[in-house]
Amino acid sequence: MSIEVHQLTKIYGQQKAIDNISFTAGPGEILGFLGPNGAGKSTTMKILSCFIPQSSGSASVSGFDTSREPMEVKKRLGYLPEHNPLYLDMYVKEALEFVAGVYGIRNKRSRIEEVIELTGLGEGRHKKIGALSKGYRQRVGLAQVILHDPEVLIMDEPTSGLDPNQLVEIRSLIKDLGKTKTIILSTHIMQEAEAICNKAVIINKGKIVADDSLTALYEKNPGKTFEEIFIGLTNTGLN
């Protein structure tokens, strides 16, 4: 498995942000990591990306432990956080050249051109990032994430700010990437999860309440939409 989470717990003071959670994801899977605000999604993704340590339990990416081997994890991981960190004073191509240099990418120019094409950044390649629309800034973030061709991608609200046409293009890109890579995608839009993901882990109040394929979730909840299934599992309204 590309991602293995085993009895993972994170405590802040007296509060358990995540409580003894376990799940796996492998190549060819696009896993929707879903839950209400404050459920523990961002905490889990930050642990997997080696941004913060867990309190107990273990997590690994491509066989490398996030606590003991963070540099090996980062070589194989692309992480797009919800608030996309960008150098706004850089030009698009300049920023990608900088990121490529950080990763020591060979054939840097051809790889940058390939990623610009994949993410639809051709028209904006010579613009300053600060002058781009929110949707195009999101594309730059995606380009940075996939530039070093990582085995695992973690994306937090990756389609935020995209117009309907851009949304279709980026969904298609994520699905294409998911054919060979392992992807964890977090979103609050259930239609987005339905359109992109083939598996879902739903977390509520720090605990996993569902871990199954979307097909199996529908079979277990006949006649319900995915949004109704989510609401029922997270106890926020409909049953």
Task: Tell me briefly what this model is.
With 239 residues, the protein is α/β, with parallel strands linked by helices. 37% of the residues lie in helices and 26% in strands. The chain folds into 2 domains: 1-76 and 151-163 and 180-239, P-loop containing nucleotide triphosphate hydrolases (Rossmann fold), CATH 3.40.50; 87-149, no CATH class.
Helix/strand layout:
Blueprint: E1 3-12, E2 15-25, E3 30-34, H1 41-48, E4 56-61, E5 64-65, H2 70-75, E6 77-80, H3 92-103, H4 108-119, H5 134-146, E7 152-156, H6 164-177, E8 182-186, H7 190-196, E9 199-204, E10 207-213, H8 214-220, H9 226-234
Helix pairs in contact: 3-4, 4-5
Question: Which features would summarize this protein structure in a list?
Answer:
about 35% helix; alpha/beta; 6-stranded mixed beta sheet; 4-stranded antiparallel beta sheet; globular; Rossmann fold; 2 domains; about 240 residues
Describe this structure in words.
The chain is an alpha/beta fold and 239 residues long. Helices cover 37% and strands 26% of the residues. It contains nine helices and ten strands. It has helices at residues 41-48, 70-75, 92-103, 108-119, 134-146, 164-177, 190-196, 214-220, 226-234, and strands at residues 3-12, 15-25, 30-34, 56-61, 64-65, 77-80, 152-156, 182-186, 199-204, 207-213. The strands form two sheets. Strands 6-7-8-3-9-10 form a six-stranded mixed β-sheet, with helices on both faces. A hairpin with a 2-residue loop joins strand 1 and strand 2. Helix 3 packs across helix 4 (108-119) and helix 4 packs across helix 5. The longest helix has 14 residues, at 164-177. The radius of gyration is 18 Å and the shape is globular. The chain starts with a strand and ends in a 5-residue tail after the last helix. 39% of the residues are buried.
